[in-house]
Give the backbone structure.
Amino acid sequence: MDNDLLKSLNNYLTPDLITQASDTLGETEANVFKSITNAIPTLLMGMLNKTNDSTTMDLIMSLANSNDLDTSGVLLDLPRSLSSDRKKTTVEAGTTMLNLLFGNKQSSLFDILVNVTGVKKTSVSRIMLMTAPMILAYIRKSEYTTETLKQALLSQQDQIAKQAPSELPAFLKQSQHVKPEKKTRVRTHKRKKTEAPNTKWILPFLIFIASLLILYIMS
């Protein structure tokens, strides 16, 4: 097993593959090559972003080891992944992987790749749906486990980041951002001031009583 993920995956990008992909997508060979060589580190960066998420990593490993994924077929006939007669299970594996890694931010991700590669957004989408199953098939062929895959990704993260689109780290960081919960405002109820009893009547009353006593004594 070659531990150099980028090198191993790029080895599948033969001139014949690039030519067939170019014809299928209606894009130039140079732009197709650029698109795929950006798609590979983009997906690896997506996995790197999930290395602390054991549930997602386990699901990716389950996709790679699924009986529905024809490993040899994916790796030997990659251009078919771009055509209309592509296998449904291959497309589903690619779609699931993209959903696990990028969720509902895929459209924004494709925009980044469009800016970098110069191909149409629909072409970027199809290239990603070809590259994702290719990576899954490679993971299975190389007999990675969840732990060995995480170790390989982490040990090569600088190299992967260098090959990925420059906007990707900021995009992934933004995708991870969780809006802080609104602070619950604690309402403090002010105590109503207790009204002091009205004592203004006491003094006049005492004077009145004293006057009556004086009159009584004098009389």
Notes: Residues 177-192 have pLDDT under 50 and may be disordered.
